[in-house]
Amino acid sequence: MEQYFPFQLSPLPYGYVSLMPHCDANTLYYHHDKYYAEAVYELNRLAVRHRLTDQSLSQLAVGDYNLPTAQLNRLKSAAGAVYNHQLYFDGISCKAGPPPFNRLTEAIASTYGSMARFQQLLTEAAESIIGSGWVWLVAEGNKGIHIATTDNNEVVPLGSVAPVLIADMWEHAYLTMDHFNKPDYVDAWFSLIDWGRAEQRYLEALASAPAGGAEYG
């Protein structure tokens, strides 16, 4: 459901120790209660300052407002950080395990050949990011799924694709546990994906696609 001002910090759907040994409690606490919380505070402050409290979260993340470049970049960065973090935390399960067989994983295997190949491509995408950013799996209606990356706190083009999965590739998400080893972090994140929620997003993207045209894969 779309969110509007005042934007709220979404609570963690699991405890701080629930992701051990894949993520320690301190890393999860600072990631959620500090970095993410600061982005929510900043977004609310900027929405008031620029008189944009009537705009939704996704509108603020992708909108092109008549603001000086520096101020617009700061607004979109805050909105993107809130939007992306909500998807990230909500997309993680505290029960690690292999992907189940469902319509999403069937589409992934059909598109990429296997789940192992898909995970390899996610890792390569993560390693290709220079600096900080995000790795996504997005659905383009009935045109199929594809992997995307965004820099810093940018979001994918929400008007044309629907996010299905997202991995946070900022250092605060993985530095404590995995140091600079991105493949180890991606492996840990992949084992914690909430595939039920991911499939729900995928099915919603298919349902909202225009009639006509076959599903990709």
Would you mind describing this structure in some detail?
This protein is mainly α. Helices cover 48% and strands 10% of the residues. The model is unreliable at 212-217 (pLDDT under 50).
Summarize the structure.
The protein has 217 residues and is mainly α. It has eight helices and three strands, in the order αααααβββααα.
How is the secondary structure organized here?
Layout (H helix, E strand, L loop, with lengths): L24 H25 L7 H6 L6 H22 L12 H10 L2 H14 L4 E7 L5 E7 L10 E7 L6 H4 L3 H10 L3 H13 L10
Helix pairs in contact: 1-3, 5-7
N→C terminal distance: 28 Å
Number of helices: 8
State mean pLDDT (0 to 100 scale): 92
Structural class: mainly alpha
**Uncertain regions spanning at least 5 consecutive residues:** 212-217
Helix content: 40-55%
Percent of residues in beta strands: 5-15%
